[in-house]
Amino acid sequence: MTQIRILLVDDQPLIRAGFRALIEAEDDLSVVAEAANGAEAVTLAARHRPDVALVDIQMPVLDGIEATRRIVADPALAGTRVVILTNYGIDEHVYEGLRAGAAGFLVKDTEPVDLLHGIRVAARGDALLSPAITRRLIGAYVSRPPSSGRTAALDVLTNREREVMALAARGLSNHDIAERMVISVATAKTHISRAMTKLHARDRAQLVVLAYETGLVTP
């Protein structure tokens, strides 16, 4: 069995210990390193190249947003997905974190089963956005008209790619999209991948951000 390798980043030892105990009880998950601040996180991510980095937002030396930005910017860490840990599902840093390249967010007091599921979702490259966080993201665009430059960026997409991108932004999985459009799951996944490539989106979460920024999807 291929294990999902995880980097834990939190300045509270008890939080890290709790997450480690939960994660290492699973056969397909393992903790490869722990960091107490964002600077350590960047260094350890480069050293261990984890599949998923669970990163707290508020930390000394370097906060979670900047640590995320630096990890995502490292070409050697293209396979690492950063999931930001927050105390509040509607934290003001949600949008900033997604723009920094986070694959998603998890609330610290989430149920253990949901935390484990979230790690697996992020590892396979899907966006990890809870309903509360999705509402926060949508709300950020209620009073913002899409910029003409961003809107024009969608011209590179086919009509099918636009349709699939819009459905993904509304929270539908590849399976849901396939059913809605009466296509195979593989075809839905291909459309998503092509849209990401054309729009230079690192992952599905960034594709969702772009869908709202460009006005493709409106609240």
Automatic annotation (TrEMBL):
Annotated HTH luxR-type domain residues: 150-215
Keyword tags: DNA-binding, Phosphoprotein, Transcription, Transcription regulation
Gene3D superfamilies the UniProt entry points to: 3.40.50.2300
SMART domains: HTH_LUXR, REC
Positions of the Response regulatory domain: 5-123
GO biological process terms held by the UniProt record: phosphorelay signal transduction system; regulation of DNA-templated transcription
Modified residues (4-aspartylphosphate): 56
Source taxon at top rank: Bacteria
Name of the molecule in the record: DNA-binding response regulator
Organism: Virgisporangium aurantiacum
